[in-house]
Amino acid sequence: MSEHDELAAQRRKNLRLIHFSKEDQSLVESEKPKETFADVGGLEEVKKKIRMNFILPLKQPEVYAAYGKQAGGSLLLYGPPGCGKTFLARAVAGEIDANFFHVELQSILSMYSGQSEHNLHDIFEKARENKPCVIFIDEIDALGGSRHQMRQHHDRMLVNQLLLELDGLQAENDNVFVIGATNTPWYLDSALRRPGRFNHLVFVPPPEEAERQTILELKLSGKPLGSLNLPRIAAETKFYSGADLEQLVHDAVESAMERTFEKGEIQPITQDDLKRSTKGRKATTLDWFATAKNYATFSDVNGDYQIVLDYIKKHGVKS
Ligand SMILES: Nc1ncnc2c1ncn2[C@@H]1O[C@H](COP(=O)(O)OP(=O)(O)OP(=O)(O)O)[C@@H](O)[C@H]1O
């Protein structure tokens, strides 16, 4: 079984499906993730922001109370695919030993009037009953927003419901955290970007060179290794996402396993295995930056994405 399959099997074991009611088949997957920040390579700035706003308030509420601040709140992660938004959200839950509700918008959308809002409300209710809880809403841009030229009435209602739920959390100090994620923040409904809604909009960039080395070390740990020059691989994988690096290690593992089967004894992963799996592999984040550059330059996002333009300039992104 590959590492990926093992992880998937482990996750399935941890999964608890919550049925809301007999009539309503809407489900949300709830689990207690094992990942913590130690498993997330790099992203130190992002982790720091999350620690200050999500984790410390729960661990040291008295400090926050003294300053009139409370635990809970919401965070919106955006950036290129595969850079760890979902992984980070799971790690937040792991850090605070919270339940993790992974909300797929498709599963709450209903053709019946009012039912989608009802489903969303139920998820927040369940989260309160299972606190501390992290509600992770993936592809949150699909909720209303400008993706659909002809915005549906019920999209609007669902956005309004989410706004209500977020406002409710702000008022109640419930130890329920909402993390939204999107690869296409420019499609996001503008109401969700207003202050007091998703209070933190955080760019999750591709890992830097030293971070790529850390991710490679994390993904290779515990495996039979030859003499490796990981700084070299890290230097040659500019703009690779965490998922790209994971795939690279996966391919190198396959090569070493093939040799093992041929030779009949465990063969270590070599520098050549890693090097070979970088050949012809383009960083998947580059296409994202090309699109992001257009939107960040021309859309009416009030400089929200200046950080992306700065990143493109600083790192010389050429897609
Ligand atoms: N910083 C990181 N450290 C360790 N592993 C990472 C990191 N970033 C990504 N990965 C690996 O890549 C996989 C994919 O990452 P993840 O699903 O979190 O990306 P994402 O940003 O949510 O992508 P998408 O936008 O496509 O949903 C993770 O399961 C994890 O194994």
Could you characterize what this model shows?
The chain has a seven-stranded mixed sheet, sandwiched between helices. With 319 residues, it is of the alpha/beta class. The chain has three domains: 3-203, P-loop containing nucleotide triphosphate hydrolases (Rossmann fold), CATH 3.40.50.300; 209-280, Helicase, Ruva Protein, domain 3; 284-315, no CATH class. It is globular. Helix 6 (115-129) packs parallel to helix 7 and helix 11 crosses helix 12 (271-278). The protein has 14 helices and seven strands. The structure holds adenosine-5'-triphosphate (ATP). The site of adenosine-5'-triphosphate has 19 residues, from helix 4, helix 9 and helix 11.
Could you list some keywords that capture this structure?
319 residues; alpha/beta; Rossmann fold; Helicase, Ruva Protein, domain 3; 14 helices; 50% helix; binds adenosine-5'-triphosphate
Brief summary:
Keywords: ATP-binding, Coiled coil, Nucleotide-binding. The chain is an alpha/beta fold and about 325 residues long. The chain has three domains: about 5-205, 3-Layer(aba) Sandwich (Rossmann fold), CATH 3.40.50; about 210-280, Helicase, Ruva Protein, domain 3; about 285-315, no CATH class.
> Element order, helices and strands?
HEEHHEHEHHEHEHEHHHHHH
Instruction: Please state the average pLDDT score.
Output: 82
Major sheet: 7 strands, mixed
State the total count of DSSP E strands: 7
The CATH class of the largest domain is: Alpha Beta
- Shape type: globular
Helix content: 40-55%
Q: What's the N-to-C terminus distance?
A: 36 Å
CATH architecture of the largest domain: 3-Layer(aba) Sandwich
The poorly predicted ranges are 19-26, 147-151
Strand line-up in the sheet with most strands? 1-2-4-5-6-3-7
Q: What does the radius of gyration come to?
A: 21 Å
InterPro entries: AAA+_ATPase, AAA_ATPase_domain, AAA_lid_3, ATPase_AAA_core, ATPase_AAA_CS, P-loop_NTPase
Protein name: AAA ATPase central domain protein
Keywords: ATP-binding, Coiled coil, Nucleotide-binding
Family: Belongs to the AAA ATPase family.
